[in-house]
Amino acid sequence: MESQDLRKVGLKVTLPRIKILDILENSEQRHMSAEDVYKALLEMGNEIGLATVYRVLTQFEGAGLISRLTIDGGHAVFELADGNHHDHLLCVRCNRIAEFMDDVIEQRQRAIAVEKGFKMTDHSLYIYGICSECQSSGE
Amino acid sequence: MESQDLRKVGLKVTLPRIKILDILENSEQRHMSAEDVYKALLEMGNEIGLATVYRVLTQFEGAGLISRLTIDGGHAVFELADGNHHDHLLCVRCNRIAEFMDDVIEQRQRAIAVEKGFKMTDHSLYIYGICSECQSSGE
DNA sequence: ATGTATGCAAAACATTTGCACCTGG
DNA sequence: CCAGGTGCAAATGTTTTGCATACAT
Fold it and tell me: CA triplet B65, B67, B73: central angle to 5 degrees?
Protein backbone atom coordinates (compact mmCIF):
# COMPACT_ATOMS: atom_id res chain seq x y z
CA MET A 1 0.00 0.00 0.00
CA GLU A 2 1.86 3.00 -1.29
CA SER A 3 -0.15 5.57 0.63
CA GLN A 4 2.01 4.42 3.53
CA ASP A 5 5.08 5.55 1.59
CA LEU A 6 3.57 9.01 1.39
CA ARG A 7 2.63 9.21 5.03
CA LYS A 8 6.06 7.93 5.94
CA VAL A 9 7.76 10.91 4.32
CA GLY A 10 5.33 13.34 5.86
CA LEU A 11 3.11 14.03 2.87
CA LYS A 12 -0.61 14.15 3.23
CA VAL A 13 -2.20 11.32 1.28
CA THR A 14 -4.07 12.90 -1.59
CA LEU A 15 -5.38 11.49 -4.81
CA PRO A 16 -2.94 13.32 -7.09
CA ARG A 17 0.01 12.14 -5.02
CA ILE A 18 -1.17 8.54 -4.98
CA LYS A 19 -1.78 8.53 -8.73
CA ILE A 20 1.54 10.15 -9.55
CA LEU A 21 3.47 7.76 -7.33
CA ASP A 22 1.58 4.91 -8.93
CA ILE A 23 2.61 6.02 -12.39
CA LEU A 24 6.21 6.42 -11.39
CA GLU A 25 6.22 2.92 -9.91
CA ASN A 26 4.31 1.16 -12.63
CA SER A 27 5.24 2.86 -15.85
CA GLU A 28 7.34 0.89 -18.27
CA GLN A 29 9.65 3.90 -18.63
CA ARG A 30 11.94 4.42 -15.69
CA HIS A 31 12.61 8.06 -16.60
CA MET A 32 9.73 10.45 -17.05
CA SER A 33 9.39 14.20 -17.45
CA ALA A 34 6.61 16.14 -15.74
CA GLU A 35 4.84 16.26 -19.09
CA ASP A 36 5.17 12.48 -19.46
CA VAL A 37 3.60 11.94 -16.06
CA TYR A 38 0.87 14.43 -16.89
CA LYS A 39 0.03 12.64 -20.14
CA ALA A 40 0.07 9.26 -18.41
CA LEU A 41 -2.40 10.60 -15.87
CA LEU A 42 -4.72 11.81 -18.59
CA GLU A 43 -4.55 8.46 -20.34
CA MET A 44 -5.64 6.82 -17.10
CA GLY A 45 -8.52 9.24 -16.92
CA ASN A 46 -7.16 11.32 -14.07
CA GLU A 47 -7.77 15.02 -14.45
CA ILE A 48 -4.78 16.38 -12.59
CA GLY A 49 -3.34 19.77 -13.41
CA LEU A 50 0.17 20.05 -14.83
CA ALA A 51 1.05 22.53 -12.08
CA THR A 52 0.16 19.91 -9.51
CA VAL A 53 2.35 17.36 -11.27
CA TYR A 54 5.29 19.75 -11.01
CA ARG A 55 4.54 20.52 -7.38
CA VAL A 56 4.18 16.88 -6.43
CA LEU A 57 7.32 15.80 -8.26
CA THR A 58 9.28 18.51 -6.48
CA GLN A 59 7.90 17.37 -3.15
CA PHE A 60 8.73 13.76 -3.93
CA GLU A 61 12.23 14.80 -4.77
CA GLY A 62 12.52 16.70 -1.51
CA ALA A 63 11.27 13.66 0.33
CA GLY A 64 13.86 11.48 -1.36
CA LEU A 65 11.29 9.32 -3.11
CA ILE A 66 12.58 10.22 -6.56
CA SER A 67 15.56 11.95 -8.09
CA ARG A 68 15.69 14.58 -10.75
CA LEU A 69 18.06 14.42 -13.69
CA THR A 70 18.59 17.49 -15.77
CA ILE A 71 19.03 16.70 -19.40
CA ASP A 72 20.80 19.06 -21.76
CA GLY A 73 19.75 22.19 -19.93
CA GLY A 74 16.15 22.99 -19.29
CA HIS A 75 14.52 19.60 -19.35
CA ALA A 76 14.14 17.53 -16.23
CA VAL A 77 13.25 13.86 -15.95
CA PHE A 78 12.57 11.95 -12.78
CA GLU A 79 13.34 8.42 -11.67
CA LEU A 80 12.28 6.44 -8.65
CA ALA A 81 15.05 6.58 -6.06
CA ASP A 82 16.42 3.14 -5.43
CA GLY A 83 18.85 4.16 -2.74
CA ASN A 84 21.83 3.37 -4.92
CA HIS A 85 23.69 6.29 -6.34
CA HIS A 86 24.45 6.02 -10.03
CA ASP A 87 25.28 8.17 -13.01
CA HIS A 88 23.84 8.18 -16.52
CA LEU A 89 24.62 7.45 -20.14
CA LEU A 90 22.35 9.25 -22.60
CA CYS A 91 21.80 8.23 -26.19
CA VAL A 92 21.86 11.37 -28.31
CA ARG A 93 19.82 9.65 -31.03
CA CYS A 94 16.95 7.96 -29.24
CA ASN A 95 17.22 9.56 -25.79
CA ARG A 96 17.53 6.16 -24.16
CA ILE A 97 18.98 6.46 -20.67
CA ALA A 98 21.30 3.87 -19.18
CA GLU A 99 22.79 3.84 -15.71
CA PHE A 100 26.17 2.98 -14.30
CA MET A 101 28.18 3.27 -11.12
CA ASP A 102 31.92 3.37 -11.00
CA ASP A 103 33.83 3.38 -7.76
CA VAL A 104 37.01 4.58 -9.36
CA ILE A 105 35.28 7.69 -10.68
CA GLU A 106 33.45 8.27 -7.43
CA GLN A 107 36.69 8.14 -5.53
CA ARG A 108 38.60 10.36 -7.94
CA GLN A 109 35.85 12.95 -7.65
CA ARG A 110 36.19 13.03 -3.91
CA ALA A 111 39.94 13.35 -4.24
CA ILE A 112 39.65 16.22 -6.71
CA ALA A 113 37.22 18.10 -4.48
CA VAL A 114 39.69 17.82 -1.59
CA GLU A 115 42.56 18.86 -3.83
CA LYS A 116 40.66 21.98 -4.88
CA GLY A 117 39.56 22.82 -1.37
CA PHE A 118 35.90 22.09 -2.03
CA LYS A 119 33.63 20.36 0.42
CA MET A 120 31.74 18.23 -2.09
CA THR A 121 27.97 18.20 -1.71
CA ASP A 122 26.99 16.52 -4.92
CA HIS A 123 28.08 15.76 -8.42
CA SER A 124 26.56 14.98 -11.77
CA LEU A 125 28.07 13.00 -14.57
CA TYR A 126 26.53 12.36 -17.95
CA ILE A 127 28.14 10.41 -20.74
CA TYR A 128 26.58 11.21 -24.12
CA GLY A 129 26.83 8.84 -27.02
CA ILE A 130 25.06 6.57 -29.44
CA CYS A 131 23.62 3.43 -27.94
CA SER A 132 24.15 0.01 -29.52
CA GLU A 133 20.60 -0.14 -30.90
CA CYS A 134 21.02 3.15 -32.72
CA GLN A 135 24.42 2.15 -34.01
CA SER A 136 23.12 -1.03 -35.59
CA SER A 137 19.97 0.54 -36.97
CA GLY A 138 22.25 3.09 -38.62
CA GLU A 139 19.58 5.48 -37.52
CA MET B 1 44.08 41.75 -33.86
CA GLU B 2 41.14 39.61 -33.02
CA SER B 3 39.15 40.30 -36.18
CA GLN B 4 41.57 37.80 -37.68
CA ASP B 5 40.27 35.16 -35.26
CA LEU B 6 36.80 35.76 -36.62
CA ARG B 7 37.80 35.61 -40.26
CA LYS B 8 39.79 32.48 -39.54
CA VAL B 9 36.71 30.60 -38.40
CA GLY B 10 34.67 31.87 -41.32
CA LEU B 11 32.62 34.53 -39.61
CA LYS B 12 32.11 37.90 -41.19
CA VAL B 13 33.78 40.59 -39.12
CA THR B 14 31.00 42.71 -37.71
CA LEU B 15 30.92 45.12 -34.86
CA PRO B 16 28.80 42.99 -32.51
CA ARG B 17 31.06 39.99 -33.05
CA ILE B 18 34.22 42.00 -32.39
CA LYS B 19 32.80 43.55 -29.25
CA ILE B 20 31.52 40.28 -27.88
CA LEU B 21 34.80 38.50 -28.51
CA ASP B 22 36.58 41.40 -26.87
CA ILE B 23 34.47 41.08 -23.75
CA LEU B 24 34.99 37.36 -23.57
CA GLU B 25 38.74 37.85 -23.86
CA ASN B 26 39.12 40.80 -21.54
CA SER B 27 36.55 40.34 -18.84
CA GLU B 28 37.84 39.50 -15.40
CA GLN B 29 35.28 36.69 -15.19
CA ARG B 30 36.16 33.65 -17.22
CA HIS B 31 32.60 32.36 -17.24
CA MET B 32 29.79 34.53 -18.49
CA SER B 33 26.15 34.03 -19.34
CA ALA B 34 24.55 35.66 -22.37
CA GLU B 35 22.98 38.16 -20.00
CA ASP B 36 26.38 38.92 -18.44
CA VAL B 37 27.85 39.62 -21.85
CA TYR B 38 24.86 41.75 -22.75
CA LYS B 39 25.23 43.84 -19.59
CA ALA B 40 28.95 44.21 -20.14
CA LEU B 41 28.24 45.50 -23.65
CA LEU B 42 25.80 48.06 -22.32
CA GLU B 43 28.31 49.22 -19.73
CA MET B 44 30.79 49.78 -22.51
CA GLY B 45 28.20 51.79 -24.34
CA ASN B 46 27.51 49.26 -27.06
CA GLU B 47 23.88 48.97 -28.01
CA ILE B 48 23.74 45.36 -29.10
CA GLY B 49 20.53 43.37 -28.86
CA LEU B 50 20.31 40.42 -26.50
CA ALA B 51 19.13 38.26 -29.38
CA THR B 52 22.33 39.04 -31.22
CA VAL B 53 24.37 38.13 -28.17
CA TYR B 54 22.71 34.73 -28.12
CA ARG B 55 23.18 34.26 -31.85
CA VAL B 56 26.82 35.27 -31.75
CA LEU B 57 27.63 33.12 -28.73
CA THR B 58 26.05 30.15 -30.45
CA GLN B 59 28.09 30.83 -33.58
CA PHE B 60 31.27 31.18 -31.55
CA GLU B 61 30.51 27.89 -29.92
CA GLY B 62 29.95 26.26 -33.30
CA ALA B 63 33.24 27.72 -34.48
CA GLY B 64 35.04 26.29 -31.47
CA LEU B 65 36.02 29.70 -30.12
CA ILE B 66 34.15 29.19 -26.86
CA SER B 67 32.44 26.38 -25.00
CA ARG B 68 29.09 26.29 -23.34
CA LEU B 69 28.56 24.91 -19.87
CA THR B 70 25.09 24.19 -18.67
CA ILE B 71 24.64 24.94 -15.03
CA ASP B 72 21.93 23.32 -12.96
CA GLY B 73 19.48 23.07 -15.83
CA GLY B 74 18.40 26.05 -17.83
CA HIS B 75 21.27 28.41 -17.37
CA ALA B 76 24.20 28.45 -19.76
CA VAL B 77 27.56 30.12 -19.28
CA PHE B 78 30.35 30.41 -21.81
CA GLU B 79 34.11 30.28 -21.50
CA LEU B 80 36.83 30.96 -24.01
CA ALA B 81 38.03 27.67 -25.44
CA ASP B 82 41.62 27.03 -24.55
CA GLY B 83 41.96 23.81 -26.46
CA ASN B 84 42.32 21.75 -23.33
CA HIS B 85 39.38 19.68 -22.25
CA HIS B 86 38.48 20.03 -18.59
CA ASP B 87 35.58 19.55 -16.25
CA HIS B 88 34.18 21.85 -13.56
CA LEU B 89 33.72 22.29 -9.85
CA LEU B 90 30.91 24.65 -8.89
CA CYS B 91 30.54 26.39 -5.56
CA VAL B 92 26.91 26.17 -4.52
CA ARG B 93 27.29 29.21 -2.29
CA CYS B 94 29.07 31.80 -4.39
CA ASN B 95 28.80 30.24 -7.86
CA ARG B 96 32.55 30.31 -8.27
CA ILE B 97 33.67 27.92 -11.00
CA ALA B 98 36.92 25.97 -10.82
CA GLU B 99 38.32 23.66 -13.44
CA PHE B 100 40.07 20.33 -13.36
CA MET B 101 41.17 17.53 -15.61
CA ASP B 102 41.64 13.97 -14.48
CA ASP B 103 42.97 11.31 -16.78
CA VAL B 104 41.77 8.49 -14.60
CA ILE B 105 38.19 9.73 -14.85
CA GLU B 106 38.48 10.40 -18.57
CA GLN B 107 39.70 6.90 -19.13
CA ARG B 108 37.08 5.23 -16.93
CA GLN B 109 34.38 7.12 -18.83
CA ARG B 110 35.60 5.74 -22.11
CA ALA B 111 35.72 2.26 -20.64
CA ILE B 112 32.18 2.54 -19.29
CA ALA B 113 30.84 3.71 -22.64
CA VAL B 114 32.40 0.70 -24.33
CA GLU B 115 31.08 -1.62 -21.63
CA LYS B 116 27.55 -0.33 -22.16
CA GLY B 117 27.79 -0.46 -25.94
CA PHE B 118 27.75 3.32 -26.38
CA LYS B 119 29.87 5.15 -28.88
CA MET B 120 30.76 8.12 -26.68
CA THR B 121 30.37 11.53 -28.29
CA ASP B 122 30.74 13.73 -25.27
CA HIS B 123 30.41 13.87 -21.51
CA SER B 124 29.78 16.40 -18.81
CA LEU B 125 30.92 16.23 -15.25
CA TYR B 126 30.18 18.76 -12.53
CA ILE B 127 31.26 18.49 -8.95
CA TYR B 128 29.16 20.66 -6.66
CA GLY B 129 30.41 21.80 -3.30
CA ILE B 130 31.44 24.65 -1.08
CA CYS B 131 34.67 26.33 -2.04
CA SER B 132 37.37 27.10 0.49
CA GLU B 133 36.58 30.81 0.58
CA CYS B 134 32.94 30.13 1.44
CA GLN B 135 33.92 27.56 4.03
CA SER B 136 36.16 29.96 5.90
CA SER B 137 33.80 32.91 5.63
CA GLY B 138 31.17 30.64 7.16
CA GLU B 139 28.96 32.26 4.61
C1' DA C 1 -12.75 23.14 11.25
C1' DT C 2 -8.71 24.36 9.37
C1' DG C 3 -4.45 24.11 7.39
C1' DT C 4 -3.00 22.01 3.01
C1' DA C 5 -3.49 20.79 -1.58
C1' DT C 6 -5.33 21.57 -6.06
C1' DG C 7 -6.78 23.76 -10.51
C1' DC C 8 -6.56 27.28 -13.53
C1' DA C 9 -4.68 30.99 -15.66
C1' DA C 10 -1.15 34.16 -15.66
C1' DA C 11 3.76 35.04 -14.79
C1' DA C 12 8.49 34.02 -15.02
C1' DC C 13 12.78 32.69 -17.31
C1' DA C 14 16.13 31.68 -20.60
C1' DT C 15 16.36 31.27 -25.24
C1' DT C 16 14.81 31.38 -30.18
C1' DT C 17 12.64 33.15 -34.28
C1' DG C 18 10.19 36.11 -37.96
C1' DC C 19 10.86 39.88 -40.46
C1' DA C 20 12.10 44.44 -42.14
C1' DC C 21 16.22 46.99 -42.23
C1' DC C 22 21.22 47.65 -42.27
C1' DT C 23 26.10 46.51 -43.51
C1' DG C 24 30.50 44.27 -44.63
C1' DG C 25 33.30 42.66 -48.47
C1' DC D 1 25.25 45.18 -54.87
C1' DC D 2 23.68 41.32 -52.10
C1' DA D 3 24.19 37.60 -49.00
C1' DG D 4 24.42 37.63 -44.51
C1' DG D 5 23.89 40.08 -39.96
C1' DT D 6 21.19 42.77 -36.70
C1' DG D 7 17.35 44.78 -33.82
C1' DC D 8 13.05 44.46 -32.11
C1' DA D 9 9.10 42.23 -30.71
C1' DA D 10 6.69 38.26 -30.49
C1' DA D 11 6.88 33.25 -29.87
C1' DT D 12 8.76 29.22 -27.43
C1' DG D 13 9.05 25.60 -23.96
C1' DT D 14 9.46 24.55 -19.38
C1' DT D 15 8.58 25.45 -14.88
C1' DT D 16 6.58 28.47 -11.16
C1' DT D 17 3.13 31.20 -8.79
C1' DG D 18 -1.23 33.79 -7.16
C1' DC D 19 -5.46 32.98 -5.70
C1' DA D 20 -10.02 31.08 -4.94
C1' DT D 21 -11.84 26.58 -4.09
C1' DA D 22 -11.77 21.74 -2.47
C1' DC D 23 -10.13 18.14 0.59
C1' DA D 24 -7.65 15.25 4.25
C1' DT D 25 -7.31 14.61 9.02
Answer: 155
